[in-house]
Amino acid sequence: MNLFAKIAAVVGTCLALGGFASAPASSSPTTPAASAIASAPATAHPLTAEDVAAYFDGMLPSEMERADIAGVIIVVVKDGKPLFERGYGLADVKSGRPVEPDATLFRPGSISKLFTWTAVMQLVEAGKIDLDADINRYLDFKVPPYDGKPMTMRQLMTHSAGFADASKDLFPPDLKHLKSMSQMREVAMPARIFAPGSTPAYSNYGASLAGYIVQRVSGERFEDYIAHHIFAPLGMAHSTFEQPLPQGWSANMSKGYRTASGHPGPFELVQMPPAGALATTGSDLSRFMIAHLQDGEFQGQRILGAKTAEYMHSLQFQPVPQLPGMALGFYQEPANGHRVIGHAGDTGLFHSDLHLYLDDNVGLYISLNSAGTGGAGSLGSGLRTSVFRGFSNRYFPATRSDAIPTWSNAKADGQTLSGYYIDTGRSEASWTRIRSFLLGQTKVASDNDGVVTISSYRGVNHQLQRWREIGPFQYQAIGSASRMAAVVRDGKVSLIMRDDYPPVEALQPVPATLSASWNLPLLYLSGAILAIAALTWPLSAIIRGRYGHRFELSAGAATLYRLTRAVCCGYLAFGYLWYWLLTKGGHASSGSDWIVRLIQLLGVVCLVGTIAPLLNVRTVFADPARSWWAKVSSVAIAAACLAAIWFVASLHLITLNIAY
């Protein structure tokens, strides 16, 4: 490297770090309190290929090494042309094959949905789909109404159709378990948990349902429709929704990694192609971005009419009025007051973001082929979020805020928000409620000054953010421009959202009966009692044998004693197996249903066996010779078993249908 290159790299690194350090202001409507604190704007860097190269060359190599990421693609488009396309790192660590933006295939996950939504809008434009009609008009199976309301395409496109989250078979293990789009009716429909159009709840199933409608209305296979009506006019010759990849394409496919230092994973199959099956290059994605930035046109070819594209990019659903909302398929993003829409995409191994600065005619795309360490690939707080914020701050800087004002009702409002919450994008079916309703709750707390903390809201450094109120139930993160707001009616909170996370999910207050404030302590206490009872059973036998003492109980009392301890062991095994299934990911496909059924069978045995601890209490208290400790422990064990029954019931751990 010559002296000039070394200096450029050092300068790029310093500038990159500067971009990471500052954060963007919200693009959402500002309150008078928020606008009153603005001061002089920062100076924007020239958005040139040379400056962008210096910026990313200085930032990405060191960040990739730190986070153990194998390869990254960066694409920037401006004024209808690619400005910067570069691959960093390796597409195949073992062979040393580099990432090439015009040849290496990445899997951008849910960015695939933007192609599905574009296809829908083409058919809307052609008069073949009505955004506000009952979608049953286009299906060969029935989606039942919820609260008497039908589901519409507009609701599917804004993730407000009311579907619960569903993960089963999302990534099937092999082609044998992969269904074609014509088999959509065979894919289990997730539960409906919200009224249509009322609540943001991200849904892969909903996007796939839209793709199935595209297939039925157009008369073409979904994969063929996208190829003929989007890829072909845009010249995207290295893009496909086909699974497996077309013959000869695998040589250009990047490997996917958890970490670059680990082994690569297999090619990920996606059960619902419209939701995430795209394989593409950075150069191809640039054409798609340019087409949308130019209201549907690319090099004389149109994929959408200008008015259709403008409508698709406009606000359609805003769950929290003070924050960004949903366009049709795209979502609004905060970028220092600039009008930006985009979408993220995640498979198990690839992690991507696409951002369109509509009024600036600029697009940014980043894709990682590794999850990395320290949450580098995470949505909302990882490397790609830092890239988006740093890029926005460098080329579209915000006015600087000198201080965050204090709202007069901050303390009272903070107390109103305090409590436990659950994500709207959750599963309510079967045993996955363990994650949603027990282990995944968010705690909102407020201090004496009304400064709020939300356990699941963390910054790009993964540190807990502290939020100061700047308007009625409107908050700004201290030390950042991130915004958060709540919808409160009649003193009751209905939703909490933040602006630096896609508006496809929100926080809702958890029902009091399921609150972690008492359920988690109950879980820990009952688990400890069961564990002590299970451990002291063999230990007491060993001690008796060591000192030659005989077992004092006989007949029915001895049988109940042993059955009670066996039930304790059973419940412990039952709980551990659910934990194992959650952490090992064995629940991902129907191939593991037999494991779920075996665990549930053990649970049924434990439920029936709970009769033993209850009878044991009566037997112990009926015998005047039994010690006070025997009486106390018998009650404690019976109570712990009843607590276990509560968790089985409230978390739906034993069900007839294995849907999740």
Give an overview of the whole structure.
This protein has 660 residues and is of the alpha+beta class. The chain has 18 helices and 21 strands. The strands form five sheets. It has an eight-stranded antiparallel sheet with strand order 20-19-18-17-16-15-14-21. It has a seven-stranded antiparallel sheet with strand order 4-3-2-12-11-10-9, sandwiched between helices. A hairpin with a 6-residue loop joins strand 9 and strand 10. Helix 1 packs across helix 11.
- How are the strands of the largest sheet arranged? 20-19-18-17-16-15-14-21
Coarse shape: globular
Helix content: 25-40%
> Low-confidence runs (pLDDT<50, min 5 residues)?
1-40
Largest β-sheet summary: 8 strands, antiparallel
**Strand residue percentage:** 15-25%
Structural class: alpha+beta
Beta strand count: 21
Ends apart, CA distance between termini: 54 Å
Give the integer mean of the pLDDT values: 89
SS field, number of helical segments? 18
Question: What's this model, at a glance?
Answer:
The chain has 660 residues and is α+β, with helices and mostly antiparallel strands. The protein has 18 helices and 21 strands.
Task: List the defining traits of the structure above.
single chain, 660 residues, alpha+beta, eight-stranded antiparallel β-sheet, seven-stranded antiparallel β-sheet, 21 strands, 38% helix, 16% strand, disordered N terminus
List the helices and strands and how they pair.
Blueprint: H1 3-21, H2 32-35, E1 38-41, H3 49-67, E2 71-78, E3 81-92, E4 97-98, H4 112-125, H5 153-157, H6 204-218, H7 222-234, E5 256-257, E6 264-265, H8 273-276, H9 282-293, E7 297-298, E8 301-302, H10 306-312, E9 331-333, E10 340-346, E11 351-357, E12 362-368, H11 383-395, E13 399-401, H12 410-417, E14 419-423, H13 433-439, E15 442-446, E16 452-458, E17 464-471, E18 474-477, E19 483-489, E20 492-498, E21 507-509, H14 516-547, H15 555-584, H16 593-609, H17 611-622, H18 628-650
Antiparallel strand pairs: 1-13, 2-3, 2-12, 3-4, 5-6, 7-8, 9-10, 10-11, 11-12, 14-15, 14-21, 15-16, 16-17, 17-18, 18-19, 19-20
Helix pairs in contact: 1-3, 1-11, 4-6, 4-7, 14-15, 14-18, 15-16, 15-17, 15-18, 17-18
